[in-house]
Amino acid sequence: ISFVNDSHQNQNASADRILLENIIEKSVQFRTDIRDICRRRSPTDEENPKKSLLEQCDDYRLQMKYLGVEIKDRNQGSTWSFKK
User: Fold this and answer.
1) pLDDT for residue 48
2) What sign does the dihedral 58-61-71-41 (CA atoms) show?
3) What is the C-alpha separation between 79 and 71, in angstroms, rounded?
4) What is the distance in angstroms between the CA of the first residue and the CA of the last residue of the chain?
5) Residue 43, SS3 per DSSP
6) What residues does 73 pair with on adjacent strands?
7) Which among 12, 23, 32, 41 would be 20 to 30 A from 50, CA to CA?
8) Strand partners, 77
């Protein structure tokens, strides 16, 4: 019986769970931010909604990069990969 190996596997599982929780938290926050932008729009708003939405998308991409997920924008859509 190897307790060292089990301990290492448990640490990896815990780290993976924390990473996943962080990614989900950022995703939910991104969705909330986008919904807030859409809800506060009115004909008198001077803010450009397209710019606000794109800024939120850029911020989300940056947050994902910090969490190890790289999102790249392409002409045909976006791609993602895990950063090494």
Assistant:
1) 75
2) negative
3) 6
4) 32
5) coil
6) 78
7) 23
8) 74
Instruction: List the one residue out of 55, 59, 75 whose CA is nearest residue 67.
Output: 59
Within 1-84, residue ranges assigned H as helices are 3-39, 49-66
- Per-residue pLDDT of the chain (84 residues), as tens digits, is 555 566 667 788 888 899 999 999 999 999 999 998 888 766 555 667 778 888 999 999 999 999 999 999 899 899 999 987
Distance CA 1, CA 3 (A): 6
Give the C-alpha separation, 17 to 65, whole Å.
Answer: 17
Q: Which residues are CB-contacts of 27 (< 8 A; sequence separation ≥ 6)? A: 60
Length of the chain: 84
Structure tokens belonging to residue 1: 């019986």
Q: Are 27 and 71 in contact (CB under 8 A)?
A: no
Cα 18 → chain centroid: 14
